[in-house]
Amino acid sequence: MSDIAISQDTSQRELDRLAELAEDVIRRARAAGASQAEVSASIGTGLNVNVRLGEVETVEHTRDRGFGLTVYFGKRKGSASTADLNADSIQATLDQACAIAKYTEEDPAAGLADASRMATQFPDLDLWHPWAIDTPAAIALGQEIEAAGRAHAGITNSEGASVQAGESLSVYANSHGFVGRERGTRHSLALSLIAGDEAGMQRDDWYDAVRSANDFMSARALGDKAAERTLARVGARRLSTRQAPVLFVPEVARGLIGHLIGAVSGGSLYRRASFLLDHAGKQIMPAWLTIVERPHLKRGQGSGAFDAEGVATRDSSLIENGVLARYILGSYSARKLGLESTGNAGGIHNLVVESGHGDAGPADDFSGMLRRLGTGLLVTEVMGQGVNTITGDYSRGAAGFWVENGEIAYPVEEITIAANLRDMYSGIVAVGADVDRRSHLLTGSILIDRMTIAGE
């Protein structure tokens, strides 16, 4: 068994204990005069092993606890938290939250989510898969991954391999009588390698992230993938400044979807800090494109039956036939905007970008997306923070490959790609069937009709 794993039976007992603690603190908050109260409590364990050049670099065991309490005295709010679950610390946290609330200004949008929106069904989302791996086995696995990558001719060095196993238990409860329990596991493997020639050094990596260790790619396959990606970058060139179509690989394409989420999230909207302000119901993407939130996917990276306020989650379109169908709201931002919560307090749950294009026929695999790109830029990495969600301006450092006639011609680096997100979203030509499932943002590669590429 793992050195730190929470057993199947122990996890249920721990959840019951957290739930009892949360309900008790809520009762005590009400007795202290709070009109409403909510509690989040969690326990997490982890094993993280890093190896480099066959030797152990770090072994880290973690066991974290968290307890957060928010109380409302009418429209006045106070919050406090602790990492210690003993009785004295919990009482001090309660006292502090109540004291803060008594001195804060009233906020008309403050308060719990509506009681009628609380989740009442809790399906098994298949998120709990403790990994029975101990430290020696994790070290051996990391060494196996690294050895597979270093075995490739041309690989000159390694930045190391990592093996991570993690388990988390959490309870959210509030004075509506809602008590929600969640337990989940997250495990990952990763390898970063270096290759070089007379022109210089190149590095690249690969990783896998799963709920169940049974779903991992093999150690050999991960090492091979990291090595192939690293070797492909050797001999990278710069490009002259030009305009061209740009294809983002899935792991980079999901960043484009992340910018969309930021622009249509409540905090940006009520602060009037978004280029998509007042765009609900308007066409912002091609008419063939739909993006749907699916919170109940089995083993999904973002699956959950309720959000951070207990509001029930449900399948819901964000983009429907190119139209922005709704915003992404928790109860606070919804009240600030005069709208209703969309069940997204704490974030989005499994956003699925449906693969396709404007032509008849099935979605393209990665090779098909390269052919559709024709001659242009394939982006495999972006750098820097040059994204302004107020104006939509997008300018980031990039690396990848120049593609000619649907075939990769040579690697490129030290370039900048630029456009406006509004034009990029409306200029999406196709979304590939090569979906990256290592994230809660599920998308294939995304082809944009035209961007400016700045190089030499």
From TrEMBL:
<dbReference type="InterPro" id="IPR045569">
    <property type="entry name" value="Metalloprtase-TldD/E_C"/>
</dbReference>
<feature type="domain" description="Metalloprotease TldD/E central">
    <location>
        <begin position="129"/>
        <end position="233"/>
    </location>
</feature>
<dbReference type="Pfam" id="PF01523">
    <property type="entry name" value="PmbA_TldD_1st"/>
</dbReference>
<dbReference type="GO" id="GO:0006508">
    <property type="term" value="P:proteolysis"/>
</dbReference>
<keyword id="KW-0482">Metalloprotease</keyword>
<dbReference type="Pfam" id="PF19289">
    <property type="entry name" value="PmbA_TldD_3rd"/>
</dbReference>
<dbReference type="InterPro" id="IPR045570">
    <property type="entry name" value="Metalloprtase-TldD/E_cen_dom"/>
</dbReference>
<dbReference type="InterPro" id="IPR035068">
    <property type="entry name" value="TldD/PmbA_N"/>
</dbReference>
<feature type="domain" description="Metalloprotease TldD/E N-terminal">
    <location>
        <begin position="37"/>
        <end position="101"/>
    </location>
</feature>
<keyword id="KW-0645">Protease</keyword>
<protein>
    <submittedName>
        <fullName>Metalloprotease PmbA</fullName>
    </submittedName>
</protein>
<dbReference type="InterPro" id="IPR002510">
    <property type="entry name" value="Metalloprtase-TldD/E_N"/>
</dbReference>
<dbReference type="GO" id="GO:0005829">
    <property type="term" value="C:cytosol"/>
</dbReference>
<comment type="similarity">
    <text>Belongs to the peptidase U62 family.</text>
</comment>
<dbReference type="Pfam" id="PF19290">
    <property type="entry name" value="PmbA_TldD_2nd"/>
</dbReference>
<dbReference type="GO" id="GO:0008237">
    <property type="term" value="F:metallopeptidase activity"/>
</dbReference>
<feature type="domain" description="Metalloprotease TldD/E C-terminal">
    <location>
        <begin position="242"/>
        <end position="455"/>
    </location>
</feature>
<dbReference type="InterPro" id="IPR036059">
    <property type="entry name" value="TldD/PmbA_sf"/>
</dbReference>
<keyword id="KW-0378">Hydrolase</keyword>
<dbReference type="InterPro" id="IPR047657">
    <property type="entry name" value="PmbA"/>
</dbReference>
